Amino acid sequence: MRHHGDTESAARPTRVLRPSSAASKLNIALSTLWLRVKTDPHFPRPFKLGPRTTVFYEHELDQFLSQCAAQAREGRKGQHGQEAL
Predict the structure, then answer these.
(1) Where are the chain's structural domains?
(2) Cα–Cα distance measured from residue 25 to residue 28, given in angstroms and rounded to the nearest whole number
(3) Fewer CB atoms inside 10 A, N or C side of the chain?
(4) What angle do CA 12, 16, 20 make, to 5 degrees?
(5) Residue 16: φ, ψ to 5°
């Protein structure tokens, strides 16, 4: 499964995470994950694999974490005036 426009090498598999695993990876509560999805336009977007299965691309979460870390190192606040994760 590949994301349209994905530039990862074909040798590296694309992993997806369920919402609870995505929240754990980001060290935030599940309710905070959904709040970020609704209110932060820069937060990775989930997608549906089926009628009851929602997932996030792990590499998009990794990129988001890297951006938050870079902003924190620069001493800047995150989007919407929130502290970076």
Answers:
(1) 16-75
(2) 8
(3) N
(4) 145
(5) -120, 150
First to last CA, the chain: 28
The pair of structure tokens assigned to 17 is: 């995470």
User: Among residues 34, 14, 39, 71, which one has the least CA distance to residue 83?
Assistant: 71
Are residues 35 and 82 in contact, defined by beta-carbon separation less than 8 angstroms?
no
Instruction: Give residue for tokens 């994950």.
Output: 33
**Alpha-carbon gap, residue 34 to 56, rounded angstroms:** 12
pLDDT digits (tens, 9 = 90+) for 4-48: 555 555 566 799 999 999 999 999 999 999 999 999 999 999 999
Q: Where are the alpha helices (DSSP H) in 40-82?
A: 58-73
